[in-house]
Design goal:
Helix content: 25-40%
Strand content: 25-35%
Shape: elongated
Radius of gyration: 24 Å
Bound molecules: zinc ion
Number of helices: 9
Number of strands: 20
Length: 342
């Protein structure tokens, strides 16, 4: 595909010819669909549609996990017709991506239609995304995360927060505009820092009362207005466990759709020398403790290890592979292994 997307900067020299990569042409195509309603409507003609019902995606059970069914425009229009809906409903869909061949992908929530009848018709079930998580492959889960987050944002931004008037989405769903005062609303994510604190030899893990029994994870919290990532990390650690940081290092990030759209910014941090006594803020956490390299390695292996906290031995587990906290913990273990004496 990209071979045919060459841009000639200057006709006179062959050497000025530059081919745009598949990624760049795809990105430019998506940009065009977001900016141009007619182009987006045209893309719907050959697009694929992912269906949701009350933010739960349509899934089909397969041998190893789930399949994520997609409908063509024709199939979608036929479905809408069957349930007495105008074909215009297609315009409620939001753009969530496209293939390397520029097949545009859309998501549409049909919460107003009867769920059981639609499930029968579509030979699938609208399944809560959180429940389906561990059975989806990473590409499907990332696409469904985006779709659900965008659909949720539209659902909760139907009105202008200044004038109270109904807002109108553009064709792609990349923004909403208030017709009365022209304010433009863009979908937002809340930045959240997640930090794995270490004292050099051990790492600090904590749990909230809402976590599944025995689960310990890295510290996390929302960025406050005006904060840089490093400010938010230092504040969260001080607030939650009463420790001060010597240094911190960015690791990776992840979009997380639950309960609302968050941008998880994952960091490693080292406490100041001598800062090892944890003072748990019980308004935020149920417990926090230092864990040894061996304890964490055993937990990563999923061997249901035990930890000695507050003089009692209790089983503990770590977040699943899909969560960025898991990535942070694994990275820390690998770094520790490199720094341990042979
Ligand atoms: Zn307004």
């Amino acid at each position: 595909m990209s071979l045919y997307c060459g841009i000639a900067f200057k006709r006179k020299s062959f050497w000025c010819y530059r081919l745009l990569s598949t990624y760049v042409t795809k990105t430019r195509y998506l940009f065009e669909l977001k900016e141009d309603d007619d182009a987006c409507k045209k893309a719907q003609q050959t697009g694929a549609f992912y269906l949701f019902h009350g933010l739960a995606p349509l899934l089909r059970t397969a041998e190893h996990g789930y399949l994520v069914p997609r409908l063509s425009l024709l199939e979608l229009e036929r479905l809408l017709g069957k349930f007495g809906q105008d074909a215009q409903r297609v315009e409620d869909s939001v753009l969530i991506g496209c293939s390397d061949q520029h097949e545009a992908w859309f998501a549409l929530d049909l919460a107003s239609l009867p769920k059981p009848e639609m499930e029968t018709e579509l030979r699938g079930s609208f399944t809560e995304l959180r429940k389906a998580l561990l059975k989806l492959n990473s590409m499907d889960s990332s696409l469904l995360f985006t779709a659900q987050a965008l659909l949720r944002w539209h659902d909760s931004h139907q009105f202008c927060s200044k004038s109270g008037q109904p807002t109108k989405k553009n064709m792609a769903g990349s923004k909403r505009v208030c017709p009365s005062n022209k304010i433009i609303y863009y979908p937002q994510m809340a930045p959240v820092v997640i930090v794995l604190v270490s004292d050099g030899a051990r790492c600090l893990l904590a749990r909230q009362s809402s976590f599944p029994k025995g689960l310990y994870s890295a510290l996390a919290g929302f960025c406050d207005i005006g904060e840089r990532i490093e400010d938010a990390v230092r504040r969260e650690v001080a607030e939650e466990v009463g420790l001060e940081l010597e240094s911190l290092q960015y690791s990776a990030s992840q979009h997380w759709p639950f309960p609302n759209s968050s941008l998880m910014i994952a960091c490693h941090a080292i406490v100041k020398p001598g800062q090892t006594e944890i003072q748990v803020n019980l308004k935020e956490l149920e417990a926090a403790a230092w864990f040894s390299h061996d304890e964490v390695v055993t937990a990563l292996r999923g061997e249901s290890p035990y930890t000695q906290q507050q003089n009692k031995i209790s089983p503990f587990s770590l977040p699943p592979k899909l969560a960025i906290a898991h990535h942070l913990i694994k990275e820390w273990v690998e770094k520790q292994a490199c720094s341990l004496p042979a």
